[in-house]
Request: fold
Amino acid sequence: MKRIPTTDDPIDWHAADAMTEAERHAAAMADPDARPMTDDEWAAAPRVPRVAIIRRALRLSQEEFAARFHIPVGTLRDWEQGRKEPDTAARAYLRVIAREPEIVRRALSSSPGE
Reply:
């Protein structure tokens, strides 16, 4: 019987390299933590809204992002948690924020020096 490796075991790359593609696929399918997702699983999986990626790239909290770009924080949370999807206009606005965040910030500021 083959011993199941633990996280403390070093990886035997020679054994892995010696496996055929079919053997690698069978090993992946046998491991519930490494098994590739089926098309049905992908379709049912919650989507990661792009707004979270944009916000994290700008290193802003939800509250900071919402205030800076005049988006209600509840709306932002709904988008990020997948409860709602941004509509077409909001997706366009998010695209502009992603590409030119400083221009959007300046355009929304209430005074020239803000």
Q: What stands out?
A: The chain has two domains: 14-44, 50-108.
